[in-house]
Amino acid sequence: MQAIIGIPCDVKTIGLFPFHAVGEKYITAAVGAAGGVAVLIPSLGDAAQLDTIINLVDGILLPGSPSNIEPHHYQGVPSRPGTLHDKARDATTLPLVRRVIDAGIPLLGICRGFQEINVVLGGELHQHVQEQPGLNDHREPQTEDLDLMYGPAHSVQFTAGSWLQFWLGRDSARVNSIHQQGIKRLADGLIAEAVAEDGLIEAYRVGSASNFAYAVQWHPEWKYWDNDVSQAIFEAFGAACRERRMRRNQ
């Protein structure tokens, strides 16, 4: 039984017109790794549509994006000039996260999605991790070689008792790193799952959620078939989505 996995879109200007778009790699992972049917959710910021979406989907995948959450959502200082934002995505995903958690719908956040869940639940973000004392530069290498860009960049240590530790039977992994924003303060109710070498939190689960609610700062969707960490994350997410669909069909 295939579950319906909703993926919220970014709003991008292509030529003269706005387009609602999702990177193909997220769709591929939702279908191939999680075993679902991907449905793209336009970022309209319409509460009535969000309520309907909640009744449609069996899971939500919050994808990464070049854009950043507007800092007023977490009481941050104004962004620097030239920072890319997506008000329509903020107006859609931030209220959607709360609805999804309250409804017990499986939720997986990746990169921007990881940051969105933390913000919705009351956490804060660093806007420029590489400028924080004691933290490393987590930005991607400047290259057009995607395998190099998404290649392993640093290690993460799994926390004791974490789902990652249970799924993989070990205590660490190497992950890619394509971000400059990161967790400044983890929201109450979130449980750290993995921490980078410099202490930056790179994965967490929502402790209060009644179903699978998980997020990672790195990009497990990239060539997931070659990575056991990625496979473990998406398999657990997909299983939770299918279980929800089975319960709804009973």
Molecular structure report:
This protein is of the alpha/beta class and 250 residues long. 31% of the residues lie in helices and 24% in strands. The chain contains seven helices and 13 strands. It has helices at residues 24-32, 47-56, 87-103, 112-120, 146-149, 163-168, 228-249, and strands at 4-8, 10-14, 17-21, 37-41, 59-62, 107-110, 124-126, 154-158, 172-175, 182-185, 190-196, 201-206, 213-216. It has a nine-stranded mixed β-sheet, sandwiched between helices. A hairpin with a 2-residue loop joins strand 2 (10-14) and strand 3 (17-21). Helix 2 (47-56) crosses helix 3 (87-103) and helix 3 packs across helix 4 (112-120). The longest helix is centred in the C-terminal third of the chain and has 22 residues, at 228-249. It starts with a strand and ends with a helix.
